[in-house]
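Sample entry copied in:
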Amino acid sequence: MKILKFAAIDIGSNAIRLLFSNVIEQNGESYLKKSSLIRVPIRLGADTFIGKIISPEKENKMVDAMIAFRKLMDVHEVVAYRACATSAMREATNGKKLIQRIKKEADIQIDIISGKEEADIIFSNKLTSILDPTKTYLYVDVGGGSTEITLFSGGISHFSCSFDVGTIKILKNCVPQNEFIRIKECLIDIRSCCDNIELIGSGGNINKLFKYASPRSERKLNYHELKEIHSTFNSLTYDDLMIKHDMNPDRADVIIPAATIFLSILEWANANIIHIPKIGVSDGIIHQLYQEYSSPKVMAD
């Protein structure tokens, strides 16, 4: 038996996550098991989506978090890691300069990835191995600054697109004009050529929404269940969501915008079911890292 440890850093608009996962190799088979997850609610999008720049205060918090992550990765003796930044860092005018500072002070290289790359990383989770290959699915990842949609069936990705609609952008009234119309038109086109579409939801918000609906045997919700949860949460105060429903402050204010996005996509795609397999960008990074590690190396001449 051989045990390998990998690390993934997901620098989102709402929070930064460090995921450690073990890959156990035995008798020609490999098994992936999550080890631990650290989440830091820095919320870069609150700066970027309004002023297009990350403030000095959040720059310093970001650097401190990366220094801590570097030390943790050293202690865990990871085989490999990758750090990916999404919409908040993409849109920040000082994003590249901050990346250089982090490389110098924390010795962590950060890749700013496009919406298409983000969708590809998510798709690398091999979702088709756990779902019905005869069905058509829309993978929907709702973040703080963007929403990624990937259409796939039979293990093949047919289409992916990133939209500038996210929970923090809704809170800050920073969603570009007509962006919801773009999503609606895209989904109407998809449903015109695909029948019986089902969604796969990703992100901390949909997992929190599902947790409220538990217990149940399968990790999925239907449209009416999600709409009822949305209605219940919408009737509660910010304080009630934190105290009565055990939400962190940076979750309580974005849970309703997230539910609104998922409900809109279900409606526009004419879909009723949303599967919630509890995987996301961090998990996709781990899959890619192990695939790269285990691939045969080409020897140089």
